[in-house]
């Protein structure tokens, strides 16, 4: 048996525990790992030379496939280059298993080449660190090595998921002798079966009573993967309790739920618009008494600041496991459930049916109902109702209670009326914002600018798109504008750390993970050029489309107070750059579409998004001061919209 058999067993353990994709970067010290993974029949290996790009590509693969991906690198600073993606994976709760090859422990700090202190390399940004034994000649050491790999993979995938490091010290020789075959022998694996936290019927009844008896209940969703079960349960809950539900684009609440759904109770997503209205009456009308949140970070700074300054009496956060952030400084209760289970428990049943479920189900306290059986369908067409700008709280005439068939039995007429009085200003504000955007973005005379260009590009997204939003202005523009209603467009963004460093690589990983799905990256020039090595590999991505906003500067700094007022703006904040993407597109075989007018944009978009076009890059070249002026015009229009 080979002295490296314990290392050669690693791919077999990975494969048995569900890891099928490995992204590795070339190196000598990691050769035993590289060869073992490459020769395993159930593992797909991709080689990416730049470790920083490789790690983000791995993150994109894991994010798209919703299962763990392994990373492999050599010793020294190679593993440090994984750090930005590791941090992003930690805060986004994406499972990565990172195998860092290392020198044997006796050679650490001995001035040997490519040697740094690799134990616990990612510190507080990894769920755990495991040290593979340097000597596995004894049977106990082999058992120990296999056990560590099992524990690492299970830890990475256990809720809340995240990155783990397995540091693997290796001695020479690294390479098998000529003609020597690797053996993938049977190995013992330990499978950790997932469970879902439950609450007792008594606790559920107490929560139900609090929701029922509180007039001003608001649900706010942070970043969350698309989840059909959650969407349907959330919509039924909103109808049953007459509750407004608000979420950023990255919460994926805009996705279709069911054809029978009352469109006036759709989740709201225009908060970046109506929260910017300086109308005290509106802000008072929207103030919650009970805030229920789930998911991760929010993009909308306006909503975040509003909830911090308008603190509710109660704030419940729904999260099955892991550390909970007190984002709005008002947290009073942590509910340890999956959000889908929580909303299903209240959206499907009244107190009496909860009691019936307790009698019939001794093993589960959450009743099984329609949310586990109904197939999601498309939204019905929605035409926004434009509310008079002088009254932010008026809503168009309609029934007192908004219904989903078979729901809303939890409330008396008095309770429903009180809750509807709180729901109406939210709906009115959302409808006004949708109408305002429709009017503003279609002004007949306006300079060519990136805000309007993005609005038009979003209207052409193919159905079924995975939309990746780079950080800085791209994600903010998209959050304001939204995607066309009723389309199956799932939205992703690296908002765990909100860095620009791997946005392109993450989208490339997604394109590799699901080659039949359109993947569209919306990015700015600084993020794009910073991460050009995302394309430095040998794997085709014909489903990838990159929409690049090139204003030849870090344009966000002209749009935020502080840097835009400073004399050093252009030199030290915007960091103007003269680059164009044509060379990058040519180097990496991307079809290139340059546009600098609305006419060119409208002509290019249908061809750019056509399936037969293949991997392509649309470069939208604009002027940074013009963009800033137009966006300030937009903000001024929002601020004054209720004054006339």
UniProtKB/TrEMBL annotation:
Catalyzes the thiamine diphosphate-dependent decarboxylation of 2-oxoglutarate and the subsequent addition of the resulting succinic semialdehyde-thiamine pyrophosphate anion to isochorismate to yield 2-succinyl-5-enolpyruvyl-6-hydroxy-3-cyclohexene-1-carboxylate (SEPHCHC). Homodimer. It comes from Hymenobacter swuensis DY53. The gene is menD. Residues 504-620 form the Thiamine pyrophosphate enzyme TPP-binding domain. One of its GO terms (molecular function) is magnesium ion binding. One of its GO terms (biological process) is menaquinone biosynthetic process. The keyword DNA damage does not apply. This is 2-succinyl-5-enolpyruvyl-6-hydroxy-3-cyclohexene-1-carboxylate synthase. Pathway: Quinol/quinone metabolism; menaquinone biosynthesis; Quinol/quinone metabolism; 1,4-dihydroxy-2-naphthoate biosynthesis; 1,4-dihydroxy-2-naphthoate from chorismate: step 2/7. Its EC number is 2.2.1.9. It catalyses: isochorismate + 2-oxoglutarate + H(+) = 5-enolpyruvoyl-6-hydroxy-2-succinyl-cyclohex-3-ene-1-carboxylate + CO2. Keywords: Magnesium, Manganese, Menaquinone biosynthesis, Metal-binding, Thiamine pyrophosphate, Transferase. Belongs to the TPP enzyme family. MenD subfamily. SUPFAM superfamilies: DHS-like NAD/FAD-binding domain, Thiamin diphosphate-binding fold (THDP-binding). InterPro entries: DHS-like_NAD/FAD-binding_dom (IPR029035), MenaQ_synth_MenD (IPR004433), THDP-binding (IPR029061), Thiamin_PyroP_enz_TPP-bd_dom (IPR012001), TPP_enzyme_TPP-bd (IPR011766). It is an enzyme of class 2 (transferase).
């Amino acid at each position: 048996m080979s002295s490296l058999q314990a290392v050669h067993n690693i791919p077999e353990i990975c494969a048995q525990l569900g890891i099928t994709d490995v992204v590795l970067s070339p190196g000598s010290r990691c050769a035993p790992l590289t060869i073992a993974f490459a020769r395993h029949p159930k593992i797909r290996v991709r080689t990416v030379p730049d470790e920083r790009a490789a790690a983000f590509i791995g993150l994109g693969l894991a994010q798209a496939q919703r299962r763990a991906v392994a990373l492999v690198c050599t010793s020294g600073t190679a593993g440090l280059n994984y750090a930005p993606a590791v941090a992003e994976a930690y805060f986004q709760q994406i499972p990565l298993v990172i195998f860092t090859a290392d020198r044997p422990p006796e050679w650490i700090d001995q001035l040997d080449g490519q040697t740094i202190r690799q134990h616990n390399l990612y510190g507080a940004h990894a769920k755990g660190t495991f040290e593979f034994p340097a000597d596995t000649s004894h049977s106990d050491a082999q058992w120990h090595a296999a056990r560590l790999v099992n524990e690492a993979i299970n830890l990475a995938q256990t809720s809340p998921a995240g990155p783990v490091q397995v540091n693997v010290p290796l001695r020479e020789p690294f390479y098998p002798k000529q003609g020597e075959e690797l053996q993938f022998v049977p190995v013992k694996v330990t499978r950790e079966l997932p469970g879902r936290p439950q609450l007792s019927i008594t606790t559920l009844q107490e929560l139900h009573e609090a929701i029922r008896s509180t007039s001003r209940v608001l649900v706010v969703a942070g970043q969350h993967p698309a989840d059909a079960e959650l969407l349907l349960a959330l919509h039924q809950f909103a109808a049953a309790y007459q509750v407004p539900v608000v979420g950023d684009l990255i919460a994926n609440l805009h996705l279709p739920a069911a054809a029978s759904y009352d469109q006036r109770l759709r989740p709201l997503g225009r908060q970046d618009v109506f929260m910017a209205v300086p109308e005290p009456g509106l802000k008072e009308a929207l103030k919650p008494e009970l805030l229920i949140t789930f998911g991760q970070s929010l993009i909308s700074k306006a909503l975040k600041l509003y909830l911090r300054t308008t603190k509710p009496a109660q704030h419940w956060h729904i999260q099955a496991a892991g550390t909970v952030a007190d984002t709005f400084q008002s947290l009073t209760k942590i509910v340890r459930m999956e959000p889908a289970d929580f909303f299903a428990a209240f959206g499907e049943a009244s107190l009496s049916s909860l009691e019936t479920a307790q009698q019939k189900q001794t093993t589960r306290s959450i009743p099984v109902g329609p949310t586990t059986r109904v197939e999601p369908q498309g939204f019905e067409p929605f035409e926004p109702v434009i509310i008079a700008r002088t009254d932010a709280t008026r809503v168009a005439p309609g029934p007192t209670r908004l219904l989903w068939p078979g729901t809303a039995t939890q409330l008396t007429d008095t309770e429903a009326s009180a809750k509807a009085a709180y729901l109406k200003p939210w709906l009115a504000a959302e409808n006004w914002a949708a109408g305002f955007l429709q009017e503003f973005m279609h002004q007949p005379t306006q300079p060519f600018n990136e805000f309007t260009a993005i609005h038009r590009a979003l209207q052409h997204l193919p159905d079924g798109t995975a939309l990746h939003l780079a950080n800085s202005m791209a994600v903010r523009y998209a959050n304001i504008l939204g995607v066309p209603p009723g389309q199956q467009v799932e939205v992703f963004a690296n908002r765990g750390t909100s860095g620009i460093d791997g946005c392109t690589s993450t989208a490339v990983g997604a394109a590799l993970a699901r080659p039949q799905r359109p993947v569209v990256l919306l990015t700015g020039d600084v993020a794009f050029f910073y991460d050009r090595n995302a394309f430095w590999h040998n794997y085709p991505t014909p489903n990838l489309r990159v929409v690049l906003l090139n204003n030849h500067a870090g344009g966000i700094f002209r749009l935020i107070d502080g840097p835009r007022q400073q004399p050093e703006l252009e030199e030290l904040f915007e960091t103007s750059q003269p680059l164009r993407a044509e060379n990058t597109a040519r180097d990496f075989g991307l079809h290139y579409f340059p546009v600098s007018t609305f006419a060119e944009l409208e002509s290019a978009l249908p061809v750019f998004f056509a399936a037969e076009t293949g991997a392509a890059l649309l470069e939208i070249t604009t002027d940074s001061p013009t963009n800033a002026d137009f966006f300030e015009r937009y903000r001024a229009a929002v601020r004054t919209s209720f004054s006339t």
